């Protein structure tokens, strides 16, 4: 079923070749400058004035979070199914969650929990690609559809000038851990890859290198167009067949807008945040990334992903769920288990939900917490849980949604939905609806074929 949306594209503006080039890229160190005079929005197909001032924070639990150890515990099931953790009551009547998330207990009335999410794959790569792009593929060579954030970059653009349309918090190696690739631009090309933050924002020395000017550049010099023109001969490059220079141009424009303005620099500056707030989010990469994500959407970034993977390959716990110590053979390394990741997730999500509502952002900001699939109903021989596409829990908050409810239900063993099955496309319909993006919008893939945002999915009526 195709769901029509309230905002429609009426014409297409195509980004033109820029005459100045540079070596700036998102997520790398430093900025060599420049091509100055264009707005980043000119590289999108969105029509000014047609988009709402809305944003999405996407917390990606890469690896496959366990429904039992998060939002759908089964305390009455046998030990080999319910696992070693217990359950706790919450401020939402009748809802009990895993005792690994005690802070959640006070904010569940501001969330909607979907207990019937299902996806017909147990494969990390295919599952992540489907959830993050809305297109299901079963061959690795076909995994080139752009992610949600990259489509926002292409078709919508930022809410305000001077900030990127798509920011991705990750660890440096997450693209090597297959599911990280699902967050990138695919056939749209690298110009719509996210502005990637790989530095650990919990460290005192944290800074976003992209927001630093080169040593010999001042803001005054940036304004000197005569100087820029003199630099033309030294930074002009030949146009290449793959559009790499166009990509460089777009990142260059964005970088210059960011370093010459204050919106992005201020949003990324955690020294402006009091220590109590920072502590409430948690002094770790996940928590501080969540705090930065909220500051970024307030500054005008429409889509932010916090990729919790691959921090010690969370949440892919085939061994002991509490302390998943993998063989130290140098290839996978030790993994931490729920005793560490539970408290980290608990702090970051709770703080985000509290601040979204306390700051009156619950209509503007949609929070989405999910992964590519759930975990097996039965604890395996090594004390862990394996891949399980048949069931996962999803948490949503804000976005003007009807919260304080549980949608769907699983059977007594946490195996399959028994009420209201919901799939990836339904979640993405809600995301695009919130962002004001018409599902009839199309992009053109590398074969010249028009591709709709989604080929299915329905609004989840309980949420609207």
Instruction: Give me the CATH fold name.
Output: Alkaline Phosphatase, subunit A
Question: From N to C, what is the helix and strand string?
Answer: EHEEEHHEEHHHHHHHEHEEEEEEEHEE
Kindly state the number of beta strands.
16
Q: With helices defined by DSSP (H or I, 4 residues minimum), what is the helix count?
A: 12
Secondary structural class: alpha/beta
Question: What is the CATH top level name?
Answer: Alpha Beta
Topology:
Blueprint: E1 55-60, H1 79-82, E2 87-89, E3 96-98, E4 111-117, H2 124-133, H3 148-155, E5 166-169, E6 195-197, H4 219-222, H5 225-230, H6 232-235, H7 244-260, H8 263-268, H9 275-281, H10 285-299, E7 303-307, H11 338-358, E8 365-370, E9 374-375, E10 387-388, E11 392-398, E12 405-407, E13 409-410, E14 417-419, H12 424-435, E15 442-444, E16 450-452
Parallel strand pairs: 1-7, 1-8, 4-12, 5-6, 5-7
Antiparallel strand pairs: 2-3, 4-11, 8-11, 9-10, 13-14, 15-16
Structural write-up:
With 464 residues, the chain is an alpha/beta fold. It has a single domain (40-463), classed as Alkaline Phosphatase, subunit A (3-Layer(aba) Sandwich). Helix content is 25%, strand content 13%. It is built from twelve helices and 16 strands. The strands form five sheets. The chain has an eight-stranded mixed beta sheet with strand order 6-5-7-1-8-11-4-12, sandwiched between helices. It has a two-stranded antiparallel ribbon with strand order 2-3.
Task: List key phrases describing it.
two-stranded antiparallel ribbon; 12 helices; 13% strand; alpha/beta; globular; 464 residues; eight-stranded mixed β-sheet; Alkaline Phosphatase, subunit A; 25% helix; 16 strands
């Amino acid at each position: 079923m195709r769901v029509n949306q309230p905002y429609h594209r009426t014409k297409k503006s195509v980004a033109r070749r820029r005459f100045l080039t540079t070596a700036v890229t998102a997520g790398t160190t430093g900025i060599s400058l420049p091509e100055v005079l264009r707005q980043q929005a000119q590289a999108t197909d969105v029509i000014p004035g047609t988009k709402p001032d809305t944003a999405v924070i996407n917390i990606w639990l890469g690896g496959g979070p366990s429904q039992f150890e998060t939002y759908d515990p089964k305390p009455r099931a046998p030990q080999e199914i319910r696992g070693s953790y217990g359950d706790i009551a919450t401020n939402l009547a009748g809802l009990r969650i895993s005792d690994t998330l005690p802070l959640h207990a006070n904010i569940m009335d501001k969330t909607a929990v979907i207990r019937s999410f299902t996806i017909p794959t147990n494969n990390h790569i295919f599952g992540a690609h489907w959830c993050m792009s809305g297109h299901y593929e079963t061959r690795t060579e076909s995994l080139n559809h752009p992610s949600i954030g990259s489509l926002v970059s292409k078709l919508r653009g930022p809410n305000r000038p001077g900030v990127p349309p798509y920011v991705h918090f990750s660890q440096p190696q997450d693209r090597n851990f297959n599911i990280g690739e699902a967050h990138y631009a695919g056939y749209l090309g690298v110009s719509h890859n996210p502005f990637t933050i790989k530095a650990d924002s919990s460290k005192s020395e944290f800074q976003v290198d992209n927001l630093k000017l080169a040593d010999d550049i001042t803001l005054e010099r940036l304004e000197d167009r005569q100087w820029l023109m003199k630099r033309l001969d030294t930074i002009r490059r030949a146009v290449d067949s793959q559009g790499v220079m166009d990509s460089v141009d777009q990142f260059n424009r964005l970088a210059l807008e960011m370093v010459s303005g204050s919106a992005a620099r201020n949003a990324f500056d955690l020294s402006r945040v009091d220590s109590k707030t920072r502590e409430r989010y948690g002094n770790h990469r996940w928590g501080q990334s969540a705090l930065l994500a909220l500051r970024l959407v307030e500054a005008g970034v429409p889509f932010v992903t916090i990729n919790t993977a691959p921090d010690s390959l969370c949440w892919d716990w085939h061994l002991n769920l509490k302390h998943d110590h993998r063989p130290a053979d140098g290839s996978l390394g030790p993994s931490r288990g729920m005793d560490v990741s539970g408290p980290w997730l608990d702090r970051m999500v709770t703080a985000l939900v509290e601040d979204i509502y306390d700051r009156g952002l619950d209509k503007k900001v949609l929070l989405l917490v999910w992964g590519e699939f759930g975990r097996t109903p039965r604890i395996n021989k090594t004390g862990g849980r394996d891949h399980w596409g048949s069931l996962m829990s999803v948490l949503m908050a804000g976005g003007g949604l009807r919260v304080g409810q549980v949608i769907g239900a699983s059977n007594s063993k946490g195996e399959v939905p028994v009420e209201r099955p919901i799939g990836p496309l339904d979640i993405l319909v809600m995301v695009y609806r919130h962002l004001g993006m018409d599902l009839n919008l199309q992009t053109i893939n590398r074969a010249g074929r028009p591709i709709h945002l989604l080929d299915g999915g329905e609004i989840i009526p309980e949420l609207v």
